[in-house]
Amino acid sequence: MGDHPPPYPGNQNQTNLPYPPAAVYVPPQQPGYQPQPTTGYPPQQQGYPQPMYPPQQGYPPQQGYSAQDTPFPPMHQNEASGILKETNYDYVGSDEPVDGMGFDDKAIRRGFIRKVYGILTSQLVLTGALIALFMFCHPVKMYVQRNMWVYLTSMGVMLVCLIAMACCESVRRKAPTNFIFLFIFTVCEGIMLGTVSTFYDVDAVIIAVGITCGVVFALTVFAFQTKYDFTTCGGALCAVLVIFIIAGIIMSFLPQTKWTMIGYGSAGALIFSLYIVYDTQLMMGGKHKYAISPEEYVFASLNLYSDIITLFIYILQILGSAEGE
Asked: Exposed, middle or buried by CB within 10 Å (0-12, 13-18, 19+), for 283?
């Protein structure tokens, strides 16, 4: 018995062990801690200490951002897959429509169309007033016929405004700069058309105006109702227009006959009739692949106005050539 160590407290029945047993760790008890027996899982919560910080109730926190001021973009859920996707609110113009913006919203599309046709109507009324002034005011008519600098100056200013609105996004989007440039462009176009109209009979000009109005109305209804998508034909129309311009330059160096002018005017009227349908469907957007951004109402009205004015010029050329002008 003298060769073995004395028994340790709590181990009186294990006196023959060659090494002391492992000590059992007892965690210190916190104030207010009341151990209670547990039965199964999860453990009862009555005996655990209270958390130091109170839990937050939902999101967002009370001292943080509100639900309206959250810095994160809103999310929408795909009904088919249930996946949340970020909604893009930076839509300024693209080939594909964006949820909640662009032309998927019928109210935005209708408001855009009303704004475009309102601006277009104002342009056409101003142009008609200038043509009437040049046609029925004899001193003005004689002056512009004898002084071609009026026509050439108007053409130069018109080209500057057209290039500025077509190439500079800030010019055609920022008000009132876009309306100022559009007004100057329309006045210059009206002066040019008034000067050209003075070389034709009044009856021919009135008939050309009536034919142009009828053709534009019919093409607009067709563009709104047809199932064919002309917005995919932009490249083909551009190629045909380039060929048409080159042919016109070549024809200017050749002898011009009555039937040559009628044929050239008919080709030009056909091309710009197709452009009216093309630009109208670009303005409509929605079901078409390509669409103009709702912010480009000035650019849309500029396109339609240019198509209508060019169509009027070629119809007037056809009528003048047919009458032997």
From this structure: buried
Cis peptide before 255 (omega within 30 of 0): no
Please indicate, yes or no, if residue 268 is contained in any of the structural domains. Answer: yes
Torsion of CA 43, 46, 52, 58, to 10 degrees: 70
Q: How many domains does the chain divide into?
A: 1
Domain of residue 264 covers: 107-322
**Which long-range contacts link 16-21 to residues 24+ away (Cβ below 8 Å)?**
none
How far is residue 6's CA from residue 16's CA, in Å, rounded to a whole number? Answer: 9
255: left (phi over 0), alpha (psi -120 to 50) or beta: beta
State the Cα–Cα distance between residues 122 and 125, nearest whole angstrom: 5
CA distance 130 to 122: 13
Q: Tens-digit pLDDT profile for the chain (325 aa)?
A: 455 555 555 555 555 555 555 555 556 665 555 555 555 555 555 555 555 555 555 555 555 544 444 444 444 444 444 333 333 333 333 444 443 344 556 788 788 888 999 999 999 999 999 999 999 999 999 999 999 999 999 999 999 999 999 888 888 888 888 899 999 999 999 999 999 999 998 999 999 999 999 999 999 999 888 888 888 888 899 999 999 999 999 988 888 888 888 899 999 999 999 999 998 888 876 555 667 777 888 888 999 999 999 999 999 999 988 876 4
116 in a structural domain: yes
Closest CA to 191 of 135, 134, 145, 121: 134
Closest CA to 293 of 88, 101, 86: 101
Give a yes or no: residue 51 inside a domain. no
CB 215 within 8 A of CB 273: yes
